[in-house]
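Quick one: structure tokens for this chain, please?
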Amino acid sequence: MSTFSIFLVLITIVCFLLIVVIMVQNPKGGGLSSTLGGSTQIGGVQKTTDFLDKSTWTLATILIVLILLSSLSFGGSLSDTDSKIIEKTETTAPSTKTPVSPVQNTPAGTTPAK
């Protein structure tokens, strides 16, 4: 398995976790924090909101780092200098020849018709 494939799997997992964390949050203060009840429970509502907020930023940062690292690992085998398309166009490009003007062949003793 190549390093790019490993990064692709990790990026997919982080994206899934980021989607789950964002979907759990409710922009109006509800979501997971509203289902836990009052602040008398362990952790409380404020702790849950802080955890979800920190986990969102952490997962987003991890996702950006993984994308940058995967782009570095991807450049190895398919760089512009190894492109098959560039090689194909360079080898099959027609050579440019200077055009030759047509020569009139007239016998030595005759003059051309006017």
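Helices lie at 3-24, 32-35, 44-74, 84-91.
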